[in-house]
Amino acid sequence: MELRQLEYFVAVAEESSFTKGAARVHVAQPGVSAQIRRLERELGQPLFDRSERTVRLTSVGAAVLPRARAALAAVGTVQSTVDDFTGLIRGHVTVGTVSSTTSGDVDLPELLADFHREHPGIAIALAEDKAAGLIDALLAGRIDVAFVAVGADDPIGLGTATVRNEVLVAAVALDDPLADAATITLAELVERALITLPRGSGIRAILDDACAAAGLTPKVAFEASNPLVVAQLAAGGLGVAVVPGTAVEDDPNVHVLELIEPCMTGRIVLAWRTGADTSPAARAFLARARLAHS
């Protein structure tokens, strides 16, 4: 059994594709397939079900996957230990982000550029997803840190540092009947067609949780992954947008209402795994990011 076979196996499993897995490890697809077949012959069991178009893990493969990740992580700590001893930081760090962190208090391009200048030996990868996907990726070890939207409580297994607090507001077109109002209750809000971020996003989870707690069912008419697009749809008269206040505070095309009964708040946080080994590269980025947003 070779380390590269485990690396190829993990890449294909996480990408659910031999082609995408091969691209991730920068090896031709036939070479990846051949090495995984060698690994399967050595183990005496198939790791992937290849009977359908989508590559899926067999039950044996699913059991092997966390062990393979752990083995690769353990090997990585050998170099990390040497680097710690010599004071040299190198390696790679994968940073997750939601689209709403491209504005406001998080200047991610500047942060990444500053970090690269300070640590040119560290390769940086960026992964964008909704909040739920980023949290899953953090817990699974596929990414090292993430800027993610959450509610008042930290997700289990993650540590966080708050970058900014968000208050959810409603936004309507300037000619909407609500354009003369200053506030709107949640009970009044759900009577209208809503425009929101998609399920899996932190802001949508806050709205859904508030409705569930009040025994209300929101009528979602449109979804968009960018809060600015959500606001634009509201400006076009398609419904009432539910967005972070920072997304519409300077938007002249919508009228903003305070959401009350209840007031709904969330946070953009820098998140990382707790209770797990963290590479020197990830620790260095985490320290730099926390300093930038302290």
From TrEMBL:
Keywords: DNA-binding, Transcription, Transcription regulation. InterPro entries: HTH-type_LysR_regulators (IPR050950), LysR_HTH_N (IPR000847), LysR_subst-bd (IPR005119), WH-like_DNA-bd_sf (IPR036388), WH_DNA-bd_sf (IPR036390). It comes from the Bacteria. GO terms for molecular function: DNA binding; DNA-binding transcription factor activity. GO terms for cellular component: cytosol. The keyword Chaperone does not apply. Residues 1-58 form the HTH lysR-type domain. Transmembrane segments: none annotated. Belongs to the LysR transcriptional regulatory family. This is LysR family transcriptional regulator.
